[in-house]
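Sharing in case it's useful to others searching the archive later.

Someone asked me privately for the predicted structure of Type-5 uracil-DNA glycosylase, so I'm posting the question and my answer publicly. Question first, with the sequence:
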Amino acid sequence: MHGSQTGPDAPGFPAAAAPGLGAVRELDSAVTGCRARPRLVAWREEVARVRRRAFADWEYWARPVPGFGPADARLAIIGLAPAAHGGNRTGRVFTGDPSGDVLYAALYDLGLASQPTATRRGDGMRLYGVRITVPVHCAPPGNRPTTTERDTCRPWLARELELLRPTLRAIVVLGGFAWHSLLPVLADAGWRLPRPRPGFGHGAEALLLDPGGVRRVHLVGAYHPSRRNMFTRTLTPGMLREVLRRGAGLAGLPAAPHRGHP
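And my answer, the predicted C-alpha cells:
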C-alpha cells in the first residue's frame, strides 16, 4: 500500500485503499492520511500556515476531514467539502464555521444532536442516528473542487456509504454539488435510481432500491447552509430544519424538538 502508485501521495490512493477497509473507524483513519491531490494539499496547508487573524492561536488540523457520527446511522447528511477555516481548522466536518452553526443548531432542535453548537473536536458533540460526510474531504480553494478532485475522492464516499448500508434509510443532500456527486456513487453501487435521474432542488425527493428491489433509501435535497444562502434567505433555519425533520422521519428516527419548535 505504500508503493509509488498506491501510497498516500498517489492519485490512485483512495481507489486502492478504500475498498479494503472493513469499518467506518478504519475508513476515517485512512482518509486523514490522504495526499492524493497536490492542489488540495497545498491549499489546506497554506491556509493553516497563514491562518485567519481570529484563529491566530489555533493549530489547524490541515488534513482531510473524515465524516462524523455513528457507524450505524440511519440518516446520512452529505455536504460539499470542509471549510478552509472551519473543518480544516477544527478537524471535524461542519465545525467552527457559519454553515456548521446553522446545521448543528437545526439537528439539536430536532433532538438529533447533543448540543446546538460545534466548536472543536472533543467539545462533547454527539449525533444520534445521524452521520455527516462530504464528497471531497479537503478544503478546496474558493470552495470549488475540480471534477478531477471530486472523482479522486469518490472511493472514500462510496466505501463509507457501503459500510453504512445495513442501517442507512435516508440521505439529506446539501446542495447541487453534493447531489450530483452522490448519484453516480449510488448507481455504481447497484442502487436502482429513478429514470430519468432525479434533479436537485430544495425538498426534492427520490426513492432508491437495492439491486434486489427490497431495501429502500430515500434521498432528500436541501439548499446548502452556506453564508450566501443564509444571507439572501434562499435558505432559512426553518427551511433547513423541516428538510432534516423529513429526512429523519423517512429514516425512522424520532425528531423530538429540544426547544419547542413546532
